[in-house]
Amino acid sequence: MSRNHPREHGSELFIGLDVGGSKVLAAEIDADGHLVTTALRITPGRRVPVPLVEDALTEAVDEVAAGRPISGVGLAAAGFVDAAGERVMFAPHLPWRSDPTRSRLEARWGVPVAMDNDANCAARAELALGAAAGTQSALMITLGTGIGGGLIVDGKLRRGRNGMSGEFGHMQVVPDGHPCECGRAGCWEQYASGNALVRYARSRLDSPSYTQQTSLEEACGGLPEQLTGPMIAEAGRAGDRLAQRAFTVVGEWLGVGIANLVAAFDPEVVVVGGGVSAAGDLLLDPARAALRDSLVAASEREIPDVVPARFGPEAGVVGAAAMIRDAVAARG
Amino acid sequence: MSRNHPREHGSELFIGLDVGGSKVLAAEIDADGHLVTTALRITPGRRVPVPLVEDALTEAVDEVAAGRPISGVGLAAAGFVDAAGERVMFAPHLPWRSDPTRSRLEARWGVPVAMDNDANCAARAELALGAAAGTQSALMITLGTGIGGGLIVDGKLRRGRNGMSGEFGHMQVVPDGHPCECGRAGCWEQYASGNALVRYARSRLDSPSYTQQTSLEEACGGLPEQLTGPMIAEAGRAGDRLAQRAFTVVGEWLGVGIANLVAAFDPEVVVVGGGVSAAGDLLLDPARAALRDSLVAASEREIPDVVPARFGPEAGVVGAAAMIRDAVAARG
Amino acid sequence: MSRNHPREHGSELFIGLDVGGSKVLAAEIDADGHLVTTALRITPGRRVPVPLVEDALTEAVDEVAAGRPISGVGLAAAGFVDAAGERVMFAPHLPWRSDPTRSRLEARWGVPVAMDNDANCAARAELALGAAAGTQSALMITLGTGIGGGLIVDGKLRRGRNGMSGEFGHMQVVPDGHPCECGRAGCWEQYASGNALVRYARSRLDSPSYTQQTSLEEACGGLPEQLTGPMIAEAGRAGDRLAQRAFTVVGEWLGVGIANLVAAFDPEVVVVGGGVSAAGDLLLDPARAALRDSLVAASEREIPDVVPARFGPEAGVVGAAAMIRDAVAARG
Amino acid sequence: MSRNHPREHGSELFIGLDVGGSKVLAAEIDADGHLVTTALRITPGRRVPVPLVEDALTEAVDEVAAGRPISGVGLAAAGFVDAAGERVMFAPHLPWRSDPTRSRLEARWGVPVAMDNDANCAARAELALGAAAGTQSALMITLGTGIGGGLIVDGKLRRGRNGMSGEFGHMQVVPDGHPCECGRAGCWEQYASGNALVRYARSRLDSPSYTQQTSLEEACGGLPEQLTGPMIAEAGRAGDRLAQRAFTVVGEWLGVGIANLVAAFDPEVVVVGGGVSAAGDLLLDPARAALRDSLVAASEREIPDVVPARFGPEAGVVGAAAMIRDAVAARG
Prior knowledge:
The structure is a homotetramer.
Chain A: E1 14-19, E2 23-29, E3 35-42, H1 50-65, E4 72-77, E5 80-81, E6 88-90, E7 97-99, H2 101-109, E8 113-117, H3 118-129, E9 138-143, E10 147-153, E11 156-157, H4 194-204, H5 216-219, H6 229-237, H7 241-265, E12 269-273, H8 281-294, E13 305-308, H9 315-331
Parallel strand pairs in A: 1-4, 4-8, 9-12, 12-13
Antiparallel strand pairs in A: 1-2, 2-3, 5-6, 6-7, 9-10, 10-11
Helix pairs in contact in A: 3-9, 4-7, 6-7, 7-8
GO molecular function, one term (chains A, B, C, D): kinase activity
Family (chains A, B, C, D): Belongs to the ROK (NagC/XylR) family.
Pfam families (chains A, B, C, D): ROK (PF00480)
């Protein structure tokens, strides 16, 4: 790998590196957040020795650099990253355990490295270049199978004492409610996520109110367990009443939880990303209405906009690059 | 009023001024948070012309200063204060309406003035001199008839876009739950506040499980509507089973809501103040247990301590003085 | 008062007597349930000696009889009536306390007397001559400020061990929900009653979703506490969106509770009476939809019809007359 | 099979036949409810032709009769039985579908046959010979993986319009609560059943409040998914705090649901059977306390006793025999 050369104006190369559960994506990101060149690897898995995993990361970074000097690498890790951004404490699909990953990679590569978890990197992408750009305070909510989050206060991402802020998905919103994978019950992500969307639609397929009036029955071949979020999104856009009802119910829960967070943080904007957010206003309009209805003192304040994220699946790699760009700039 | 003289080391006079719904309290606060001298006035009311109200404030400040030069006045207002700390937007018991109170008082008095709402001033007191001193991140929760709050991130109180952050009491924790004075239902303060404590005890006075076994019946003279929080606290300390059950139920709800906030913020410490917190561990032990049980990834993080506030009813005036002290120091 | 003469075919005089909280209504009811002649008195109150109250009842009965022989009197009492139908155990607005009312009136008047509480008499009216006529099993649900009920199994009204069956309104449907006048919380009648309807509409008057779009604001003169159920019903029929939403929300809760009862009883029909039911399908259509959606094994059973009651405010007096007519017939 | 001979006093042979999901049990039951002789077969399954299944039933009955004349056979079927007791509408593990099972078996065997579903047969056993004997009104609640039930009013089991009364387990007690196998959410059986018990204990195994203080960790070999109800019952009896807490939580929910049913039915006694009830007062004491606390007008009525069932797994076969004994007696 090439060493870091004196930077010339406009020629800096910042690389984002997103290490997820199934794949490693490295990318050169330009100053506007576009992916210039990319390199992809399969995630080696959690039983592979750490050096081999880091070989894969090195290969991906080298492929993107293609011999050019690197100004810095930002690493987005699918796991818990400590408050200092130094260690991966735990990652379900990777071998790092309380591991000083950042400093070792920085030593190995000889370039500045910064590290954060993937949800926070997504928030960094929106803050630097996306839907939260220019704001002082924002909430980033990522809707996938569960809910991830990031917290921006006074213009900076805030990571908390343990690096674990933004776990919005596990606010309890229903006493004795749906059991959650976290071992408790009634967590917000059981009501406002991709899983919630699919569960709602599956449970209503046989309802006398919808039977023979919904295209979802056919979409899943009569097998409710085969029904997926994208099927529901497509049916919803085509006007299917059950699919739209599922987005309304999930969207209303989304808005109720956002109202809780806005009461606590009073941010300027709420950015909603993740796969489910692709449904757009089908999801966000009920969320906005529920936010207005559920927010304390709504008539005496400016209610934050609820906007879709700019970045989709590439949010992590873009935010990782933005993070190292900022870190290098801050060091002068 | 005396003008601000050149400061000599140790001779600075910072005055806190707490303008509440029923009284105005001015106090000289020393560097350790003790009240040195105080002056009290009755709050003139919301139909009195603004200049008359400000005359009362001026009198109270002058009485405390007693001719000495004033280095600054911090004003804690029982109402909404805008994000800039310049205007009182609305105060239920005072005539200010979208009023540039801070700058006008600064002009009138010729000394630096800073302003915030009373819940935030309580948080400032704990941050500067109390239970949150030395921490980078903390939540301040004030339990009175409802719940007030303050949010400390990276060592500073954060006030939000509208100056309305910290409205923790209106997180919805029960769908279709207790109606709240705010016009919605299921708000946290309906389950974890002084009002919740009293309501629980009242409703169980006639329960076959407690009748003739609780001293509360006698304490309220057989009239449940006469039962008060202090009666329940006293009975609880004396071992009354219904009173203790009331604190356990309210404490568990307190812990559940704290877990929601900790999941979102990941703070170092949670400070609980306000009148109900005088019950101490009778309230806080169930809250701590519920926090451990309800917090996501509890076993993989440092769980914040839940501690009683240092300051009681004088928290507002202490925090107001701390605020102006900091503001003057920051201006150099 | 005339004594009971040998009955001639078609000439029997059965009198219903409804002793409510504010008035006493006696009426001759014909075999089709029509009121032929009536007499009205003011309820004397609970501090008046029992004999004086019974004088008022006697006067009302005599006025209706007008010298004709009486075949029997049915008494509907606004209070708890014991399992045997002999005693009024407690009546909030009347002086009877564990009082053998039935036998004393029977002795005084020299005619057969039968007695039950008013909600059960309403159910008897519907069973004998109204919406439940000809059914073997039915639920009667009376929606007023709260919820009353009656239970018909195998063709007969069933009164339970204490004469207290049919207290459907106090099923708990929300854990830690709305406080109820009964001292507990989350009771069904807090969500599906006239009070629930009014509370919903009041709380939304200021919602940004409805303000300036609802006629209710004007109907109550801008004073939410002056808003009443009839105002909401009228606005709903005229198409007001907030009023209709209030009926939808209350109707859905009505249907959820009905589904609970149908799962337990499996009746043929559900009859909904009381003042709120005057709204008709505005209320009942959402209830029917929620019943279909909430009822276990809905697709494998005949779902009971949810129908409006035949009788309105006169249900008690009609049912009381039907009760004594049946009792006399049963004795041969 | 022997035909029905003229009955001699004391010599009648009534056979109960319980056709469950995994086995067929036939038994001669004496007048006191004891099993005199039994015969067991494996349930053939739902894809086997109906005649073959009925051959198995015939064999079991013949084995018990051993050549003696049979006075009648009572059949308890694990499925939906219609209101007339003539047809099995649906049985998940058997081939009957809207099948006139009773009359065909009666014709084949030449003896009187009566039929009901298994939960109702359990209630019949308790009514005839067990914990509800001598009562006019009772609720039978069977706690297994879910909740089954039976409804006794005025001395008789009441089966409802569709033969589906007693589905107490699917009352909705939590809005948006735990998803239920029935396709809805928040059903009572998700909170007060064997499944609820196991889920609670599993979810708390890793709680900081219990870890290293509970024997359940060892009982399940560190694998929460291996934890079973009997393990929890045993640990609870031995004083394990987590196991006892699980029974308390489930017992309280049991009591809340019983209170709902008692408010509606006002019965003399509530009988709790099924596997979970073997825990006895560990489960029933919290249920009794919650019933007292949750029941409307508890202080003005006789609260029904909550008692354990007399019969365990053999409740179905005993009740089936009692049913045919009564039916033959009624025919004279």
